[in-house]
Design a protein that fits this description.
Radius of gyration: 25 Å
Largest sheet: 2 strands, antiparallel
Structural class: mainly alpha
Number of strands: 14
Number of domains: 4
CATH architecture of the largest domain: Orthogonal Bundle
CATH class of the largest domain: Mainly Alpha
Distance between the termini: 67 Å
Strand content: 5-15%
Amino acid sequence: MKNFLPFLSLLIFALPLVAQENDSAPSHKDSLKITEAKEISLDTAAMDMKGVAQMELMEAETDLKDNPLVLVKKGDKGAYNLEDNRLAAKYDSLWMKELYEIAALSDEMYDEVSKLDVEKPYEYNLPTDTLKARLARLNQKTPFNVVYNPSLENVIKSFLTRKRDLMNRMLTVSQFYFPLFEQEFDNHDIPLEMKYLAIVESALNPKARSRVGATGLWQFMYGTGKEHGLDVSSYVDERSDPIKATRAACEYLNRMYKIFDDWDLALAAYNSGPGNVNKAIRRSGGYKNYWNLRRNLPRETAGYVPAFLATMYLFEYAEEHGLRGKKVERPYFETDTIHVKSLITFDQISELIGISTEELEVLNPSYKLKVIPFIKGKDYTLRLPKKAMGKFVTNEVAIYAHVEKELKSKESPLPALVKAAEANRIRYRVRSGDYLGKIAERYGVRVSQIKNWNGLRNNSLRIGQRLTIYPRGSRGVTKVAKNSSPKKSLNPVVVSGDKLHTVRSGDSLWTISRKYPGITIEDLRKWNGISGNSLKPGMKLKLCDCPS
C-alpha cells in the first residue's frame, strides 16, 4: 500500500524526545521519517485531510485571509504569541549536550588515523585465535576484505586500550546518524558497513574541519564538494548537511568502486585520491589487494583502511569487549523542511517560534553563521520539528514581515558579509611578511572571519598558503586601510573588551567556543589550564592568552 504522504522519505538523525509531564510518548514502533524540502501551504495540507479536519482547515484559511496575523510580544521574555499545535515534547538536554561535546573528538580521530602505527603491538586480553574466528565471520557477511593480519590486530588492540572512551562515545552518537546512512547506502547499492567510514573521517561531527580544509561528516574538500553539487559560500556549507553530504559521498564512493572494482581500494581512493592508489598499484608490481599496496600508499592512507576495519570490528563485537554507549529507548522524531522566502537568522526563528538556537544548529548544520540567506535562484531550506513547523507555516507572512521590519528598524544583526559573497570570493596567496591582521586590514574583514573561512586554529601562516577571502563590499580597500586600526585587527577574538566567560549550567567547552568566533576548544584548555572537558557553574574562563 502506497504511503499517503509520498514526500516523506528519509530518516533524520533519530533525535530523542523526553515526554512532557502527563503526556504519553509516541510508540517506539512508529517509523517516522524526514520530509524532503517542499513548499508547504494550507491548500496542499488540505488535500491530505478528510471530514471535519478538512473543513476546519478551510475555515482557518478563510479566517487568515480576512484577519491578517499580528505578532504581539508577551511581556519582556521575548516570546511571541504565535498559536498553532503545542509542542508535545522537547529535546533531551543530555543528548543535545552529547552532540555538542563530541565535536572535539573529530580532531582526536584525525590525529589517530594520520599517525597510526600499525606495526606497534599492544597488550590486551584478546586471543589471536578468537580474533581470527570473529574476523572470518565478519568477512562472510560483508564485501570488504576482512581477513586477519598482525597489523589489523595491532590497530584493534590499540583502539581497545587507548581509544575506549572515544568508541563508547561513537556508539552513542551513531544512533543519530546510522539510520540515515544505511538508508542512503541502500538506495545507492553501497555496502551498509560503509557507515563506519564517517567515524574514521569525522568522528560523526557534521561541523568537523580538518587542517587542510576538508569539512563535514564525510570530509569533502572544497573542490570535490562543488563537483558533487554541494553549495559552499560564506553563509552556507552543504558539506556539513548530513543528508546532502551523504548522498554526495555515495556518488563519490560508487565512482571509486567503478574504477577499482574493489571496496577496500575504493576506501583508499576516497582518502588519498584514485591517482595515489594507481601509483601504489604500479609500484607494487600490479597487486590489487590493499594489504599488498599499503606500503606504497601515503602514510595517512596506510592507516586508514585498518582504522575502518578495526572500527567495524569493535562495533560488531562491542558487547564482547565491554564497550557501551548511552542507549535510550526512544521514538523517532519527525521533522519537516520549508524553503525560506527571506533572509532570516536563527535568533529570530528561536524568538518567534520558541525553539532553541542549539536545536536549530543540530537540525540545520550547513548554515555557518546561524543565518539562512535568501539569494535569487537558490533554494535554501529551514528544517524544524514537525510540531514547530506548524507554527512557522501558519504565521509565515507575519514572520517575514516582522523580520523585514526588524532589520530595517535597527542595526542589522548579521555579520558584515556580502549577500552574494560567492561571486566576490578571492583566493589570496600568502607572501613573505604577511600576517592575518595585515591581510584582514587590506580586505576590510576581521581576522576571526579569515580563520573561520579557512579552518585556521591559530594565527600561523606559511608562504605560498592559499586563503579564501570574501572582501567587505561596502567599503573600498584603500578607505578601509586608512581608517582601520591595526591593533584592533590583531585582536579579533575578544569583543567589546570582554576577557572572561562565566560558566553557566549546561555550558561545555564546545558551546563556549562557538560563542566567541576565532576561539577553539584547545585555546580554552591552554589559556585556562584545563586538561579534560569538566566545567563547573561559576567558573571564570579566560578568553585570551593574557594575564588573569
